[in-house]
Amino acid sequence: MFARSLSRRHFLRDSALIALAPSVPVFLGRTVRSADITADGRILVVIQLDGGNDGINTVIPFADPGYAQHRQELRIADDKLIKLNDQVALHPDLKPLAELLDDGRLAIVQGVGYPNPDRSHDVSMAIWQTARFDAAEHKSYGWLGRALDAAPAPADGAPHSILVTDRTPPVALRGRRCSSVAMANLNDLQIRPGASLAATEAANDADDLLAFTRRATLDARSAADRIDDVVQSTAGAAEYPQTGLADRLKTVAQLIKANFATPVYYAIQSGYDTHSTQLATHGKLLRELAGAVRAFLDDLQSSGLADRVLVMGFSEFGRRVEENASLGTDHGTAGPMFLAGAGIHPGLHQAIPSMTDLVDGDLQMSVDFRSVYAAILSQWLRVDPLPVLGGEFAKCELLKA
Question: Tell me: the pLDDT tens digits for 60-85?
Fold first, then answer.
């Protein structure tokens, strides 16, 4: 008995795969080569700009007299702007997005918000993620979770949504029946060479514990091989910037190219709560965003998958019109959303809010975010938006038929 216990401990200690087996998502072992995706299978990729993006210095109303009036220190110089027309420009660090706009792959919805805006990060993000205003519903189900509950389950057993980060999946993905998986990146799930299966081969199948660990080891190895296939089959396929968001979108592209049937992917870019020294920080964030999105869409286009993917970017609110004494901006209201992909009507949508006709020092919204959601739900995910959003909202004309 003592010898058998010693052998068991030796087996558990030396078999590296055993420890890693629980960390390998079960779905990876059965989906990578079994997917049966139709050519028009739609995928939504959501990018959450966490912290409240300063929309005024993202899509810039440079001709509005209120811009120079309220942004003396944070005003972007006229000669640096990427002008889209004689009224509106993009931040100079958004050149890759400007190129997508020229290429017909970017739509910008201006002045997006919701009635009676709340300047709390938690409350405002909960409203965007649940499409509900009742605080009791903010810990319940999200707008995407409800949509995925109503949609057919992925045919290959893949999760309904994948969050590419090490954070807890947001409430937006939470539903009654749909499944969601979070992962930092595929490389974290790879099992490195050198793990030996010799102990497994020597195990006595009659011993329940050893039989269990043997099965776990083999399952983990099988899943790891499939993860390796995904990583290796797409390695070097496209150039991505060396940034965190680009790494996350590259992982999404790898899974899409490997024919996972997951219809919704979610990524988060943090850092937009720019209360002080905003210029440099905001420029860096926008540069990271633009480079990552451009690389991602180019990657999919070169792979013949661009028609299947829609990217949506949002933030929980914009920033105050007037800069503060710390060379930053405080929590505001309306801001821009963007949609990117081959299936959009490109260009600027809706009027940009006035910087002189303000409400309590804040921009007035032009578009309710639920009108953007309604378009995505009905025209892209092909789900009835009424039960998802809890009401009827005029759909923004953003997507091609």
Answer: 999 999 999 999 999 999 999 999 99
- Residue found under tokens 């509950």: 149
Q: Closest Cα partner for 177 from 194, 161, 155?
A: 161
* CB-based contact 315:109 (threshold 8 Å): no
Cα–Cα distance between 349 and 238 in angstroms, integer?
31
Q: What domains sit in the chain, N to C, each tagged with a CATH number?
A: 42-189+241-389 (3.40.720.10)
Reference 193, options 17, 66, 51, 346; nearest CA is 17
Q: List the one residue out of 232, 234, 229 whose CA is nearest residue 250.
A: 234
Q: Scanning the structure block, which residue is given the tokens 């940034």?
A: 243
**Signed CA dihedral, 318, 130, 250, 271: sign only:** positive
* pTM reported for the whole predicted model: 0.84
pLDDT in tens, 39-68: 458 999 999 999 999 999 999 999 999 999
Q: Looking at residue 400, what is its pLDDT? A: 92
Local structure of residue 171 (DSSP, 8 states) = G
Q: How far is CA 214 from the centre of its chain?
A: 37
Length of the chain, in residues: 401
Cα separation, 244 vs 295, whole angstroms: 13
